[in-house]
Amino acid sequence: MIAPTSFFSDYGCPVRILEEARALQQGGHRVSIVTYRNGRDVDGLAIHRTLPIPWRHGYEVGSSRHKLAFDALLSLSALRAALRLRPDVIHGHMHEGALIGAVLARLTGRPLVFDFQGSLSSEMVDHGFVREGGPWHRAVRRLEGWIDRHGASAIVTSSGHAVSHLTSAFGVPADRIHVLPDTVDASRFRPGLLSAAERAAALQALGIPAGRRIVVYLGLLARHQGTNLLLHATAMLVAERPDVHVLVMGFPGTDVYNARAEALGVAGHTTFTGRVPYEDAPARLALGDLAVAPKISTTEGSGKLLNYMAMGLPTVTFDTAVNREYLGDDGIYTPLGDVDRLAGAIGALLDDPARRAAIGGRLRERAVARFDGARAAEVLSAVYDEVLGRAAPREDR
Predict the structure, then answer these.
(1) What is the H or E stretch that residue 248 is in?
(2) Residue 211: pLDDT band by 50, 70, 90 thresholds?
(3) Tell me: the pLDDT tens digits for 213-250?
(4) Residue 270 pairs with which residues in a beta bridge?
(5) 124-140 burial, b for 16+ CB within 10 Å, e for fewer?
(6) pTM across the whole model
(7) Helix (DSSP H) and strand (DSSP E) numbers for the chain
(8) Where do runs of H (alpha helix) occur along the chain?
């Protein structure tokens, strides 16, 4: 696997990579992950890291000019690993991983599977790295189209909406694309993790006053994740319901968003925890009465929804095709970007405990039935068999 990210880190893309790798190992595959220098090791996974770049030691999220250097080093590390390990399949995550993998596939004669996790050009716009419609955006979009159409023997993606995007926007043949939803470990993410006393103690340790009704968010903090919209919705909620408290768990930019909460007059009703280790996420989510996912990007997946669902948390989110694929009929949907309706939906759900319990129970059932990790191993194994059947025989077999 080629992972152009700081693996492992506690947010969406690395979580998908981790759960796929674990599922494959449980299915009998041997998995090696080539990734950036930063990130933390995971017991039981073979991780190969790049050399550092001297001028940038910190953590990277999203688009950055420094990623050009990171990806150059990743290309060298991936080449060394491929020549040494002689893998059966090269599995490239995101467009950068697929581009590096396409070169390796031609050098080694091994098939490439592209793990599509959102539009490259749209992500760069979301992160403010390029201007939509500008010359750099057009250039990146042309590169994106080439990778989508010509880079891989097969593509796996987390949603049917992504299939439609690839076929309609870039002309990728539908028979090359396989839907591989994000998965969740429902034995770890489950309701009832904390007793009432444990929950009260955890809230007290976070400095949250007793008697507050808790809205939880877990994920990256960024404009395209809707962090600003969530804070404005919080201000509307608190004006009518002073016992509401929003627990914002994630990174980066906690200082910036904390300052915005203060400017909006809701600093006493918001708590920013910063990064939450993935292994601690279930216990933190167990503090919530409901969850919120205000992401405004329409091309990326939203794996955090599965964690909410498995925890039995009713979830308020914007009405997008991807969100509906995850939550089905039991999501609480509001128009994309509409802060008034977002706040209203959260407030109405907080005021109806019976409805929250019923929705949470159905979402838990849906998570267990449709998004179990064993399914990922089955889908990927079938895709690997398919591309290996089309590849030239290996000389050493």
Answers:
(1) strand 244-249
(2) very high
(3) 999 999 999 888 999 999 999 999 999 999 999 999 99
(4) 246
(5) bbbbebbeeeeeebeeb
(6) 0.86
(7) 15, 13
(8) 12-26, 67-85, 94-108, 120-126, 135-150, 160-170, 196-205, 227-240, 254-263, 281-285, 304-310, 321-327, 339-350, 353-370, 373-390
